[in-house]
Fold this protein.
Amino acid sequence: MTGRDVARLALELKESPRVPVTVIGGGACYMHMLGKTFEEIKDDPEKISDVFIQAYRKIGHDLMWTGSNFINYPIHFLGCPIKDDSSDGPILLGTVIESIEDRHSLDIEKVLKNPVMQAIIHSHHLVADEIGQEALLIPTLWGPMSAAARIMGTEQLMMALLTDPESLLELIQFSAELTWSLAERAMDHPDIRGINLAEPVASGDLISPDYFKKFAKPFLQELVGRARAKGKYSMIHVCGDTSKILEDILDIDPNCFSLESKVDLRTAKSILGGHVCVAGNVSPTGAFLSGKPAEVIAEAKSCIDAWGNTAGYILTLGCDFPKNVPLENIMALMSLKG
């Protein structure tokens, strides 16, 4: 049975011979391992895909987020400057629009027609050509609220929650359409099996459950439904403490919810178990970053024990991880594949 098969069974809440294991994210780490910068490869789909293929060959993920750390480029192509001259994830230098009144100037076609964006999309397909029968491949993109925060700035978005919620909802809808336009093109390949929506701005550390219900939930629900209609899986990752929105995740009904170590797995299981696969939640900055392999294994085993023997669990990190994580710690986590 391939890693793809094991991960698929988890997403479908079916019994599996073992727990699927992966390291979510990792694009910056993979670039760092190869001594590459994002700037030097971003317009070459073969070079981009090779980064992920080589990482897979070294690490052996059951599930991989393709395009990890390339997700700021769509915002850049809307008009925001970017710094991408290292192996660090590309950093946006400012915003696309100065105020929410400028939202009508945004143009999705400007992103889709950009040759670098087309190269990035094509790179997903090349990864799928090479390893799509072995690992479950899911491109990662900003969720609608987080994309909106990058378009106008997180601080301005937080103000707009209070001062201009209707205009903000329009901007988030635009962001949802941008995300879907990119996801749909990536999922054209039959071995690209779904999408991951990264929504850090929807974290319980930043907004209340009521704001989540109004500004994040409907758009995530819409994208999950669109993916399902195409016969594709959906995964949602929200950083921080998401304990108070687990019932909302149940309503959104993605195939998988990825959560951080701030959330107790037993609590997540009590609400999502048997309904939504859960992925998590070894800390990416604890023992994984600075401890010994034995400590990583111990923390990972505690996660497996917390979830128990029920189907619908993927052992992974609670979030993306620093590029300088020791390879032996990555492999220690992956050793739990058995």
Observations:
- The first helix runs from residue 3 to 11.
- The chain has one domain: 3-337.
- Strands lie at 63-64, 82-83, 91-92, 136-137, 140-142, 194-198, 233-237, 256-258, 277-282, 313-317.
